[in-house]
Amino acid sequence: MPTRSLTQTEAETRASLISVDRYDIAVDLTDLPTGPHVRSVSTVTFTCREPGAETFVDCAAEVVTATLNDRPLGPAADGRIVLDGLAARNVLRVESLQADTAEGAGVHRAVDPADGEVYVWMSFEPDQARHVWACFDQPDLKAPHAFTVTAPAGWTVTSNSGSGNARVQELGDARTWTFPDTPALSPYNTVINAGPLYEIRREADGHDLGLFTRRSLAAVLDRDADEMFTLTSQGLAFYGEVFGMPFPQRTYDQVFMPEFGGAMENYGCVTWSDVFLRRSTPTPAERALLARVLLHEMAHMWFGNIVTMRWWDDLWLNEAFAEFACHWAAVSATAYTDAWAGHLAAEKLTAYVADQGPTSHPISVPIRDVAEAASIFDAITYPKGASVLQQLMTYVGEDNFAAGMTAYFAQHAWGNTTLQDLIDALGAAGGRDLNAWRRGWLETAGTDRLTLETDGEDVVLVGRGPAGDPRPQVLGVGAYRRDGDRLARTALVRVEVRGPRTPVAVPAGADFLLVNDDDLTFATTRPAAGDTAGLLAAAPALPTAVSRGVAVATVWDMLITGELPARAAAHCVLDVLRVETSDAVIEPYLTMAGNIAELWAPEAERAELTAAVAAVCRELAGQGGRRQVALRAFARSAGDLDDVAWLQEQAGDDVDLRWHALVRKAELGAPTADEVDDLLKRDPDPDAQRRALAVRAAAPDPGEKAAVWQTLAVDRSVPVGSFGPVAAAFWLPGQDEVLAPYAEKYLELLPGLDRGGMILAMAYTGRLFPRFGVDEAFLDRAEEAAARVAPVVGKTLRERSDLVRRMLRSRANGSR
């Protein structure tokens, strides 16, 4: 059904006219074991401040019947039903049918290939609830929701109020689950998940914690459950304390579902992609990622659910705060004390690229309609936003920051807020006027640049902001002295920046000065006096993962801006890897080194740099706890079939490593079909066929490329959780000739890439974007096409075009 995107003006008008008392929503899932249909009856009780007025309710599903105060309504148009002649108090009843549960928005039916069992999940951000039932689908019309779900008798149903709290009635081949009322929630914060779920429960500190997944992954959930329960308990305790408000519901469920993208913070019932349940033993980086995502979604219970932004221009109040808070909680309350180092080594670097590109925008940005909102779930809102909030906590002090949060939730719980509400609370707690900080950091796009100048014994921090003067900020400058082949910090000077030049009282005699030591702000830096050689030498000599990370971030920024050749950047990262002590950054740096060799280096230097990466991987593979991640990275950089054979010997019974080895073997042009068939028989992963597809994707064979493209891009039969590895294996270096036709095929796909909602749109647009076999003329065409497609597709298209353009220029420049 064609739909219109809700505008901010329409949302404000509707919110000024009505208040929603409650939703009573009955959902029938009994057709799903064999059919596609979800049936819903939404009964909405609401009041109107101007009796006789007119508004509309959102419903993008097929409307079967609709009545307002027992009066039949006209048909839906553009995903809306007109509500005319409103009374002071109204009851709206809409029966609807959603038949597109394969590729439609809001609700998805997945079939487990292992046993044929059917699972269904719902996910509604930003405005997808309207695709399943009628509602006023905007964040500031919050109300209690009461769900009654009829499902097959063998299924478990989860929802916001907790499956254990539901009243279950047997109905022969079906069961009805009647859930208690939720608190006042926005429609996008609600959820229903269902299927023959495997469940584990545990009591912890007064909370009833639940984990769910499909039955074929029960053993994996059993393996990881203890750690998930520990993290959940630690997170709830930490947030309850620093926000001055314990999580108010006793039950807290987390449901791992097939074919889901990412994770979604539904109140009391978080939905995850079950790719987070790693089929092989998780690496340290994978465990850390699970911890951060768990804590991110949990932070949304407060930022997003309990207190919700009034409109999508304050999306950052949800996402940036949750991304900041998950690192704060990880470092403060869990075993993942290097979380900020991991953030700097990975996500923050993507934010530096995005913030210096054509799609940069302020963290807080005007949003005309919900379609635009879908386009700002990006590296500016998430990792830059998290880094800026870390800077804000540094600026006002951690204790004051926590006090401001406590006051914010005490005043606004279960309501809606704007940016100014938060700024007022933090400013009052910290005793600072934060308006200049707000304008600089939240309302201005772009990245500050910081460096040091020396004049005799005097040291001056020189700053430049995107609009002239640097933003107000507090950061550290570290002074280091040589101690053999290492650097030892002799002083850390806190500097408050108020203008373009700030004196820094560092002790005399330092051998190296590090700007933004401890990574307390979001700014690119350059070495003092342009001493690039000194920076490259210092990076592996610095004493901590964060200090080394700050140096690597500068090297990365110099690479992407064309100031440093790929060879120098790659060798610096490899030098850091040889001495790195933090598992939080080993895997991101191995990925970075591989990316530089594969994507940024000139073709003439690619083999040499790839061999250098492989050599470091062999070194790290000899270090017990790093063996797994090193061998995975070696699979990507193995130079020939002898290297692949060595890797297969090292892999032994490790099925995951054997799949990685086969991808590389296929890329090198060797036959793999028999080994793939053998591995499919040995792999317990119910989704192993997608690993086999990645092997086929890597082969430099026109027939295989065509078949994989059809499956991946045209038929869209690879779930989003498995999509990335297959797409990465498709676009490989050295295959330019066979890949060249797919640049045009990619452009042909663009008009339909928004089908299925925001997550799918970003995944298809970004991961299918050509990285080889294209030139600058193609990138020009891609950027021109961005103006003619859905906002989320156009935004991702411009981002990828900019990144690949930087890669092409780096490949052309070579060593200098």
Automatic annotation (TrEMBL):
Chain ranges of the Aminopeptidase N-like N-terminal domain: 117-188
Keywords: Aminopeptidase, Hydrolase, Metal-binding, Metalloprotease, Protease, Zinc
GO cellular component: cytoplasm; extracellular space; membrane
Domain ERAP1-like C-terminal intervals: 512-805
Residue ranges of every copy of the Peptidase M1 membrane alanine aminopeptidase domain listed in the record: 232-440
GO aspect biological process, one term: proteolysis
Superkingdom in the source lineage: Bacteria
EC number of this enzyme: 3.4.11.2
Cofactor: Zn(2+)
Catalytic reaction(s) noted: Release of an N-terminal amino acid, Xaa-|-Yaa- from a peptide, amide or arylamide. Xaa is preferably Ala, but may be most amino acids including Pro (slow action). When a terminal hydrophobic residue is followed by a prolyl residue, the two may be released as an intact Xaa-Pro dipeptide
MF (Gene Ontology): alanyl aminopeptidase activity; metalloaminopeptidase activity; peptide binding; zinc ion binding
Similarity-based family: Belongs to the peptidase M1 family.
Record-given protein name: Aminopeptidase N
Gene: pepN_1
